[in-house]
Design a protein that fits this description.
The chain is mostly helical. The chain has a domain at 40-75. The chain is built from 3 helices and no strands. It has helices spanning 2-21, 42-53, 58-74.
Length: 75
């Protein structure tokens, strides 16, 4: 009897993980879009390109891009 109850519990535990591991079904085409990287604004791309041209790295590059984007918004 102890073996039967142990096997029943083991079967229930493995069945639960099997359902959790299954892939979800897509309900509609609009919600089934793949996760994409966020689109950068043109000003960010432009400022990052300028920082790269100036060979800026690390904190200097971040500071330059931040100031560049801020000045682009002001214009």
């Amino acid at each position: 009897m102890k073996l039967l109850s142990t096997l029943t519990i083991a079967a229930l535990l493995t069945a639960g993980s099997a359902f959790a591991a299954s892939t979800p079904t897509a309900t509609s085409g609009a919600t089934a879009t793949p996760a994409a990287a966020p689109v950068k604004h043109e000003s960010a791309k432009h400022c990052e390109a300028q920082a790269k041209e100036k060979n800026l790295m690390g904190d200097e590059a971040k500071k330059f891009v931040k100031e560049c984007r801020h000045s682009a918004k002001a214009n």
